[in-house]
Design goal:
single chain, alpha+beta, 4 strands
Length: about 100
């Protein structure tokens, strides 16, 4: 199994209400993807509640393989969801790692 973890930092100069609206739309769109993209085993979006931290959003998902991650990443529904935070996103970090199911 491959775990796919993505962190997003939002731009400081964007008004809080605009960021919140974009983030909530993004969360809703991403969490609706398993019904549209069959390779997703699990997906969740967490919004950082700790203002002392740098990263604003954490996306956690699970896939059977790295090829499935690539299928998800290029799927039109996923691409459309990513566009929902494009204007408010400053940076992104990602880690994909393989695990052994017990």
């Amino acid at each position: 199994m491959v775990k796919h973890i993505v962190l997003f930092k939002l731009k400081d100069e964007i008004p809080a209400d605009k960021k919140l609206a974009a983030v909530n739309e993004f969360k809703k769109a991403i969490e609706a993807l398993p019904a549209k993209i069959s390779v997703i085993r699990k997906i969740e979006v967490g919004l950082n509640i700790n203002p002392a931290e740098t990263w604003s959003i954490a996306l956690y998902s699970e896939f059977d393989s790295l090829d499935d991650v690539k299928t998800y990443a290029t799927h039109p529904e996923h691409v459309a969801a990513g566009k929902l935070i494009a204007e408010v996103k400053e940076s992104r970090a990602c880690v994909d790692y393989d695990t052994i199911d017990n």
